[in-house]
Design a protein that fits this description.
- The protein is mainly beta.
- The chain has one domain: Galactose-binding lectin (Jelly Rolls), CATH 2.60.120.430.
- 12% of the residues lie in helices and 38% in strands.
- Strands 1, 2, 5, 6, 8, 11, 12 and 14 form an 8-stranded mixed beta sheet that branches. A 6-stranded antiparallel beta sheet has the order 3-4-7-13-9-10, with no helix packed on it.
- The protein starts with 9 loop residues before the first strand and ends with a helix.
Length: 232
């Protein structure tokens, strides 16, 4: 007996950018981003974005609004070394780090399937000198920017890819943002332009007609039995 969900997935979209310096202020992206929408049809409904601006080394933390602009208590946090804008718009604005880092997205639907779509700024083409390879991992799922698809918004500098999994029993996603094995230089840098997150809602089910009919029959039988006991 199948059930139908009463609730749609929740979508969060985030652009990272710098709050001072070159190419500031950034052009705040809005609407549907085509690469994410092609990877997951639910992202075709992403209209409202979070624009997180920072400068300097810090543990960045901020609340998230969903694609409708509503707030359901979700929170994002990460340790970074700074932020920069190679250009003024997504996906060329980014947070950067010189070290491996951990990120957390909390306040989500618990025990729910998710897709995390990532925008990796690599500074140059895959296979070129200076390619800033980075690896994102959540649980057993990983995305290596060297294996990503060139972004339609900037195919020369940015690759995209996704991670899938299930939120924790407390409704969070914890992942690592690591320097890739072929990231060059003695002081390698990794640059994260943003992400989109699709969290499936736990089904609030509606009984099928057959289920309702069985329930009604059962109630009638119980009522008849009670009536006969009263007559006895």
């Amino acid at each position: 007996m199948a059930n139908r969900s009463l609730r749609a997935d929740t979508i969060y979209s985030v652009q990272f950018e710098n709050s001072i310096g070159v190419a500031h202020p950034a052009v705040n992206f809005s609407g549907v981003e085509p690469d994410a929408a092609a990877a997951d049809a639910n992202f075709s409904h992403s209209n409202v974005w979070n624009h997180f601006a920072a400068s300097g080394r810090q543990t960045f933390s901020s609340s998230l609004v969903d694609s409708t602009g509503g707030s359901a208590g979700a929170q994002f946090s990460i340790s970074i070394d700074g932020a920069f804008s190679a250009e003024a718009s997504l996906p060329d604005t980014y947070f950067f780090s010189f070290f491996n880092s951990t990120f957390t997205i909390s306040g989500l639907e618990r025990d729910s399937a998710f897709t995390l779509f990532l925008y990796s700024f690599n500074d140059t083409l895959i296979g070129s000198d200076g390619f800033r390879e980075q690896v994102f991992t959540v649980g057993n799922s990983s995305f290596d920017s060297a294996d990503g698809m060139p972004s339609s918004l900037d195919p020369n500098n940015v690759t995209t890819g996704d991670i899938t999994g299930v939120t924790s029993p407390t409704g969070s996603i914890t992942g690592t943002w690591h320097i890739g094995p072929n990231n060059p230089g003695t002081n390698p840098e990794i640059d994260w332009a943003g992400f989109q997150l699709d969290v499936a809602s736990r089904a609030a089910s509606v009984p099928e007609p057959a289920t309702l009919a069985l329930l009604g029959t059962g109630l009638m039988v119980l009522a008849g039995a009670a009536w006969r006991r009263r007559l006895a």
